Request: fold
Amino acid sequence: QVQLVESGGGLVQPGESLRLSCAASGFTLNGYNIGWFRQAPGKEREGVSTISSNGFVTYYVDSVKGRFTISRDNAKNTVYLQMNSLKPEDTAIYYCAADRNWAASVRGDGMHYWGKGTLVTVSS
Reply:
């Protein structure tokens, strides 16, 4: 079965950290750009970070720059999102998605594969 599966979400206090994982099964992530997106209650989906297929190019939305780091381990067929200094406004369902087109991978339009998401809650 071809799928992306996110994990690592949970409830943390402001200032704490989480590492999200996006694991692929049924296909290889080689050749795909991978994006992390989030959707908070009552808000539109937002692109958070994207990593190129070779791992050399990354994108971060301004609100997470300096706090989040995206990385990939193609040998493990997994992409990670290290989230530090978490804030209540980071609370959302986080999704990963894969596509061969860079622009689409940043915008989240027409992505080839989507995961089902993992919930991140930042609250004291």
In short: The radius of gyration is 13 Å. The chain has a mean pLDDT of 96. The chain has one helix and eleven strands.
